[in-house]
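re the bet — no i am not wrong, look at it urself. input seq straight from the record:
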Amino acid sequence: MIGTRTKRAVAAAALVACLAQPALAQTKATSNCPSPVVEAMHVRLLQTELMVAALQCRNNPAFDFSSKYNNFVMQFSSPLSQNANVLKDHFRRNFGANHMTQLDRYMTRIANDAGQRGMHAGYCQNMAPMFDQVLALKGNAELARFSNANPLALAISTRDGC
């Protein structure tokens, strides 16, 4: 019989192998990652990037995205909540009692990655069109398609997600 630690180690190894796949969004059909988890990851990446932009750019009146970010969260509150639940369930299945710690680490890592991008020159200017595009979306399906097709989602390593 396989012990709990061994099961977790095997799950962690599978997780790392899955996450090591480059351009995960383009290879979903052949990936071992469940596509609802990949979709939830991409939506969370987008949400985090928008949040960081709202925080990083708020001192520049030309690029104060605070109200746009708040509108995004209100407009997509239900899909964002559903995606958060998909991620929580995924981490619970893979990490058991340690799932919240692992999820927190994942969330911190993607926020830190976004924060690093936010420090580059032109970041606020580059984020302006993304806010407009996201706020023009209608419903969860369009949000999912946009986040999956977003070059940001393709460029970010998915080493922690599935």
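see?? Residues 57 and 63 are 6 Å apart (CA to CA). told u. also Residues 1-31, 154-161 have pLDDT under 50 and may be disordered. so pay up
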